[in-house]
């Protein structure tokens, strides 16, 4: 095992897939000579050349539409959109085209398209550039939406996404690129499935479901809770669509309590979607109402102080756990 | 106007406490419908109405007791006049206490603040406000046929949560494991040992909070030990013929339409029952100014559970055949392990058997399960050298020890009882006759 940053793990995944399969190519804004806005594609232009590492105009709809055409034509494009906020410009291509082809043409064409883009806030990018819009896309049948939180999962899931026959939205987070974690050595080939969550910490008092950057916040909160005797089970969803519902239900049956911690807004977001499923499949196992830890219900403030106040944090999770885990249970 | 009387629901019942009125004043009542839940010295029972009409007046409020035969309510027509002494009683117009709502309905924090401020959360008047209970708590309660309406919830807003149901289940088991000893009017205070005098290093001990079952076992058996002077008589029983008989019975029983396996314990239960039938002076309870001799024979069998001990009862063991006893003991042991015992499985015992034979114990003494007066402790069956006709031979033998309450049973009586039991087990053909 080596220790790599999330950024380097992504780059390794792209490089390995490009080496493995010459149909794989990348395109996006400033990804070639500049190496990508977050330096993920640094060095790939030099290694693979302009045919397979292509800079584009600032036109998300064009980038996405071109990649859809290339995928239909038998190539396996990985596109980089600078942030999920800009993907709204490409939303017709994503929702009306990429998600629909296979269905509308009777399953004949594959759509092996990967759309990489960071989402989330916390870096003072302002209201327009700090959003967590994964629930918008997770709403759409025909799309896969994954949000790995660790370098290991980032590399394994990106490789799996490239090999997947359907469009995969691969959502990163600006504050994850520099985090470090263990990744198998370069000669070890592995992928991580696109439909499986993972229990990242075992516990019996409460299940905390989370993904992406909030996994790390949640694990810290779980440490704090453990000091007070509350053992939280932390589930990293990894994939927003499809949802590994069995993993959630098994955990809920054990703990009877759930917190959903995610950076998006509360209303109509992934948290409420997951909560509805849990109530549907595990109602008879619930001992307390599901708690939601989310961003405040406002556009993201630019002010550093206000931005910090608007984002969900460790204490929010700790307080949510204390609200539903009876003190007497912890003592017992 | 008809008067509903406190019914007699058990031999030892003298009075009953109204736990809950299921019907309220003014409610229509049909004959056979449940009127109220009553707590006796043994169990909680719903009492049924013997008449149809309108429940006009509740004479005994919730939480109060009434002796057997006392009027507890009046049932009549809606427009029928109440007896003069009750008409105009201001109590009828008294408003039920209402539940105090505190907090935002979510957090324990808010609830704790409320408790610190001494806000009394009055129990909701039955039928007037819905019970809040979490789905898993309701599910567990229903699985165990527990009436959760009686549980005080500790969750936010008084919601009943799983923990509350589990506590109530533990209490139910504990209450029936050792029913109240009404025969002992002045319970002896049990001195509580103080903390160990020696200082213990942190980490050397683990403090385990008492479960309700454990607390009840401690209280009941502690009282038994202090109130009743125990003495012990041990007998050695040759089990050779018993084993032969058991083998023959089991050869037959495995081909029965409902196959069953008979244990030594089942045979001993049968033998005790017959011995008690012949010596009713052992089938007694000590009641301070009198002895209560029971005409029926109900044998309790101690079942070890992970969380403690419970004593389900094989009723009328003397009248049952051996296969019937075996089936009943299987059912009770299984129900005990899965917390599925019904209250009626636990009441009425007149004698208890405790068998540690499977743990390879030679012999032991047991504490009497009040209000009974004797308990038989059964050890392992062991090959033993014995002298027969001047020759040493090996025979299978079993030691049994009878603990008796000397207030009710004397040594010679206990010895004769064991003699009879020994005869029944050593010439076991009599168990079948």
Write a brief caption for the model.
Chain A is of the alpha/beta class and 332 residues long. Helix content of chain A is 38%, strand content 18%.
List keywords for this structure.
heterodimer; A: 332 residues; alpha/beta; Rossmann fold; seven-stranded mixed beta sheet; five-stranded mixed beta sheet; 13 helices; 14 strands; 38% helix; B: 433 residues; alpha+beta; OB fold (Dihydrolipoamide Acetyltransferase, E2P); Dihydrolipoamide Transferase; Chloramphenicol Acetyltransferase; 3 domains; six-stranded mixed beta sheet; four-stranded antiparallel beta sheet; 8 helices; 26% helix; elongated
CATH topology of the largest domain in chain B: Chloramphenicol Acetyltransferase
Got a strand count of chain B? 18
Q: Round the Cα radius of gyration of chain B to an integer and report it.
A: 26 Å
**Greatest interface and its participating residue counts:** A-B, 18 and 16 residues
Work out the number of β strands of chain A.
Answer: 14
- The CATH homologous superfamily of the largest domain in chain A is called Thiamin diphosphate (ThDP)-binding fold, Pyr/PP domains
Beta-strand portion of chain B reads 15-25%
CATH C-level of the largest domain in chain A? Alpha Beta
Calculate Rg of chain A over CA atoms: 20 Å
Would you identify the regions of chain B where 5 or more consecutive residues have pLDDT less than 50?
Answer: 88-106, 109-127, 178-190
- What is the helix content of chain A? 25-40%
Please state the average pLDDT score of chain B. Answer: 81
> Main beta sheet of chain B: strand number and arrangement?
6 strands, mixed
The domain tally of chain B reads 3
What's the order of the H and E elements of chain B? EEEEEEEEHHHHEHHEEEEEEHEEEH
Helix share, percent of chain B: 25-40%
Q: Total number of helical segments of chain B?
A: 8
């Amino acid at each position: 095992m080596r220790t790599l940053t999330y950024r380097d793990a992504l780059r390794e995944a792209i490089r390995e897939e490009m080496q493995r399969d010459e149909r794989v190519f990348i395109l996006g804004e400033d990804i070639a000579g500049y190496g990508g806005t977050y330096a993920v594609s640094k060095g790939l232009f030099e290694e693979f050349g302009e045919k397979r590492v292509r800079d584009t105009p600032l036109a998300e709809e064009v980038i996405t539409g071109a990649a859809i055409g290339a995928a239909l034509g038998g190539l396996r494009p990985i596109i980089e959109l600078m942030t999920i906020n800009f993907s709204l410009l490409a939303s017709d291509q994503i929702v009306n085209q990429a998600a629909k082809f296979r269905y509308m043409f009777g399953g004949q064409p594959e759509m092996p398209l990967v759309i990489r883009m960071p989402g989330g806030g916390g870096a003072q990018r302002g209201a327009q550039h700090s959003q967590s819009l994964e629930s918008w896309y997770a709403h759409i049948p025909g799309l896969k939406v994954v949000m790995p939180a660790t370098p290991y999962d980032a590399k394994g899931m990106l490789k799996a996404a490239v090999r997947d026959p359907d469009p995969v939205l691969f959502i990163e987070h600006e504050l994850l690129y520099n985090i470090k974690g263990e990744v198998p050595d370069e000669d070890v080939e592995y992928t991580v499935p696109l439909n499986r969550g993972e229990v990242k910490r075992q516990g019996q008092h409460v299940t905390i479901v989370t993904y992406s950057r909030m996994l790390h916040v949640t694990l810290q909160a779980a440490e704090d809770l453990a000091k007070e005797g509350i053992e939280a089970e932390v589930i990293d969803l990894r994939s927003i669509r499809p949802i590994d519902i069995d993993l959630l239900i098994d955990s809920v049956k054990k703990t009877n309590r759930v917190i959903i911690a995610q950076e998006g807004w509360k209303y109509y977001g992934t948290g409420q979607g997951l909560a509805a499923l849990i109530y549907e499949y595990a109602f008879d196992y619930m001992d307390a109402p599901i708690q939601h830890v989310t961003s405040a219900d406002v556009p993201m403030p630019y002010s550093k102080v206000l931005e910090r106040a608007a984002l969900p944090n460790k204490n929010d999770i700790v307080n949510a756990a204390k609200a539903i885990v009876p003190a007497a249970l912890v003592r017992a | 106007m008809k008067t509903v009387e406190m019914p007699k629901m058990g031999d030892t019942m003298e009075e009953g406490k109204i736990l809950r009125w299921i019907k309220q004043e003014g409610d229509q009542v049909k004959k056979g419908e449940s009127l109220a839940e009553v707590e006796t010295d043994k169990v909680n029972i719903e009492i049924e109405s013997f008449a149809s009409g309108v429940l006009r007046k509740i004479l005994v409020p919730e939480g109060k007791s009434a002796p057997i035969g006392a009027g507890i309510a009046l049932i009549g027509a809606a427009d029928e006049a109440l007896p003069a002494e009750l008409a105009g009683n201001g109590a009828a117009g008294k408003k039920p206490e209402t539940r105090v709502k505190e907090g935002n309905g979510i957090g324990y924090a808010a609830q704790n603040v409320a408790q610190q401020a001494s806000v009394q959360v009055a129990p909701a008047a039955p039928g007037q406000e819905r019970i809040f209970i979490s789905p898993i708590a309701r599910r567990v309660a229903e699985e165990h046929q527990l009436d959760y309406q009686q549980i005080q919830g500790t969750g936010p807003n008084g919601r009943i949560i799983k923990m509350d149901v589990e506590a109530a289940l533990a209490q139910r088991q504990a209450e029936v494991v050792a029913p109240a000893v009404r025969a002992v009017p002045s319970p002896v205070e049990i001195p509580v040992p103080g903390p160990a005098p020696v200082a213990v290093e942190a980490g050397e001990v683990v403090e385990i909070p008492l479960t309700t079952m454990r607390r009840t076992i401690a209280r009941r058996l502690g009282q038994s030990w202090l109130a009743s002077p125990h003495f012990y008589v041990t007998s050695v029983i040759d089990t050779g013929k018993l084993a032969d008989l058991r083998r023959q019975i089991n050869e037959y029983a495995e081909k029965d339409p409902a196959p069953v396996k008979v244990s030594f314990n089942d045979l001993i239960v049968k033998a005790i029952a017959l011995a008690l039938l012949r010596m009713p002076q052992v089938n007694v309870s000590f009641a301070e100014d009198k002895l209560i001799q029971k005409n029926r024979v109900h044998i309790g069998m101690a079942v070890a559970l992970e969380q403690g001990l419970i004593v389900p009862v094989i009723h009328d063991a003397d009248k049952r055949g051996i296969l019937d006893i075996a089936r009943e003991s299987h059912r009770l042991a299984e129900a005990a392990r899965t917390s599925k015992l019904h209250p009626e499985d636990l009441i009425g015992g007149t004698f208890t058997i405790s068998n540690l034979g499977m743990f390879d114990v030679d012999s032991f003494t047991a504490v009497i399960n009040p209000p009974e007066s004797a308990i038989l402790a059964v050890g392992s069956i062991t090959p033993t050298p014995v002298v027969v006709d001047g020759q040493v031979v090996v025979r299978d033998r079993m030691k049994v020890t009878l603990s008796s309450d000397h207030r009710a049973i004397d040594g010679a009586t206990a010895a004769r009882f064991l003699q009879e039991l020994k005869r029944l087990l050593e010439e076991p053909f009599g168990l079948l006759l």
